[in-house]
Specification:
This protein is α/β, with parallel strands linked by helices and about 240 residues long. It is built from nine helices and six strands, in the order αβαααβαβαβαβαβα. The protein is globular and about 55 Å long. The termini are far apart.
Amino acid sequence: MSNGISAAHERYIAAQNKLNNMPVEFDLAKTALLIIDMQEYFINPQSPFSRMIDRRSSGLGEYLQERSRSMVEPNLKRLLDVFRAGKHRVIFTTVASECADGSDWAPAFKRMNDESRAQIGEPALPARTDPWARMVDILDPLEDEIVINKTTYGAFASTGLDATLRNLGIETLVLGGVVTNRCVETTMRDATDRGYRVILVDDGTATFSQDLQDATTLSLMGAYGFVRQTDEVLRLLAERMEVQ
């Protein structure tokens, strides 16, 4: 049985890689960089969120935080600089409650904050005005860049993101941020269902382990879009700029 499962998995990987290796066709003028939830509370080990998940399992956030600081932040900054230099669209999302008491959170997040209050005496997930909800410094949005706050995992379910993208004429999303198998994945799946082409930046995303990262990208590539490394995306962008 184990050999059969292994062979089936290998066939699936081969099929996914075949789809993922197809050429990526997109119009740069209709492309936006979408950065998901690169907020201080996910990445700072002193935040209530980090302290709460450490109660669940000691060291749970260490991989996420180290990968975010050492890899994701600098790679997203490289992409951000190119998009800004070319005057192409950049959109950020945050995940935080609009209400100070958190009453507008989706039920899953309310349960997490209830758990956090019981464990550490304060909510893990902040309100939008809380200093912990701010973007990490290296990715701080400019005044004229769009920041959309959400109260759900996906960036479409609780926001006007779809209308914003369509108003801007966006057809392709270059997607990065945290957490890969939660808010990033949900957003990518929803974007594909709405007709957008998505390029997920593998080394511009992070989750709680490399195994989770690999499983998520394997599942997403092909059916939901393309998975590429930062250097590959930068080359694609440079090629489109030469054509323009």
